[in-house]
Amino acid sequence: MLLHIVARGRIGRSPEAELVDRYLKRVTLPTRVTELPDTGGKMPAIEPGTRIVMLDEKGENIPSRVFAERIQAWREDGVRETRFLIGAADGFDDAARAEADLLISYGRATWPHMLARAMLAEQLWRATSILANHPYHREG
Q1: Sign of the C-alpha dihedral computed for residues 83, 26, 104 and 116 taken in this order
Q2: How far apart are CA 46 and CA 106, in angstroms?
Q3: C-alpha span between 17 and 99 (Å, rounded)
Q4: What global pTM score does this model have?
Q5: Fewer CB within 10 Å: C terminus or N terminus of the chain?
């Protein structure tokens, strides 16, 4: 299953970009990152059966293990792509949210988009490490 991050804004050569690269290199599933301008730009075509996950302030604050289990369930169901959307500064409207399979939030604080991308990359690494019984994730 492809884990595909589609994000508004260019991350460039920044410390956040280094974090994204560092974590995504560790993920055992195929990954892709698509950057779109803050406004406009063409969303890559969405194939039938693609799961859409939006990072959104109105989303669920789910534990890492639950996130990993959701990815695993979709993978076992034959989902070929899970697409993670990070919006522009104003986020997503209600119509876009209604199209998502899952809305997730990284707490009630507001995070810069580039940092949210790094946090998502880390959570993808953490999820795949949980599924592989790697010792990286510890609950306590």
Answers
A1: negative
A2: 25
A3: 28
A4: 0.93
A5: C
